[in-house]
Amino acid sequence: MPYSPPPRTLSGPRRRTLLASAAGAALLAGCSSGSADSGTEESTGGSPSLVERVRARAARDSRGLVERYDAALAAHPALTARVGALRAEAVRHVEAFGGTAASASPTASAPASGSPSASTPSPAASPATEKDALAALASAERALADARTQALLDVPGELARLLASVAAAGAAHAYLLTEAAK
C-alpha cells in the first residue's frame, strides 16, 4: 500500500498568498498618484537639486535632438513628411521637461544652453544621403532613450514616470526611423 502523507490543515494564509499580497501592495504603492502626500517630488526622498539637474539635462538633451532633426531637414527637405511629426514630438518633450524649444524652422543652430551632453552629440552636418540621415536620427533617438532609461532609476515619482514615458517614445521613434531608412 502506497504511503500518502497525512492531510495538513493550515491555520493561516499560505506563503504564496502572503508574497502575492506583499507584491501587490508594493505595486499599488509604487503606482499611486502621490496625491496623499504634499504633492512635491522633493517629499518622496529625492534631492531637489538632483531632480532639477535631471530635468534640465533632459530638456537640454531633447533640445539637442530637435537641433539634429532641424539639421537633417535643412539638408534633406524631402524628409519633412517622414520626420516632421517626430520632430514635433521632440519639441513637446523639451517643453514637458520645462525647457523651451528652438524655432519651428528646420535650421541647424548652436545649442541654446551650454554644451550638449554626452548622450546627445552636437548637431553636426547632416549625412549626405536621406537614408544615412534617417539612420543617424534613429541612432540619436536610441542613445537618448537608453540614457533616459538609466536616469529614471535615480529620480523619484513623477519625473521617473515622465522619463520612462519619453524614453519609450524615443525608442518608438528610433524604430520608425530605422524602418524608414530601409
The 3D shape can be described as: elongated
The biggest sheet amounts to: none
Strand fraction equals: under 5%
Radius of gyration: 23 Å
Would you tell me the structural class of the helices and strands? mainly alpha
Q: Which residue ranges are poorly predicted, with pLDDT under 50 across at least 5 consecutive positions? A: 22-44, 105-123
Number of helices: 5
- Please bin the fraction of helical residues: 55-70%
Following the backbone from N to C, one meets helices and strands in this order, namely HHHHH
How far apart the termini lie comes to 69 Å
The strand count comes to 0
Which quaternary structure do these chains form?
single chain
- Provide mean pLDDT, rounded: 75
What does this structure look like?
- This protein is mostly helical and 182 residues long.
- Helices cover 59% and strands 0% of the residues.
- It is built from 5 helices and no strands.
- The chain has helices at 15-30, 48-75, 80-96, 130-151, 157-181.
- α2 runs antiparallel to α4, α3 packs antiparallel against α5 and α4 packs antiparallel against α5 (157-181).
- The longest helix has 28 residues, at 48-75.
- It is elongated and about 85 Å long.
- It starts with 14 loop residues before the first helix and ends with a helix.
- Residues 22-44 and 105-123 have low confidence and may be disordered.
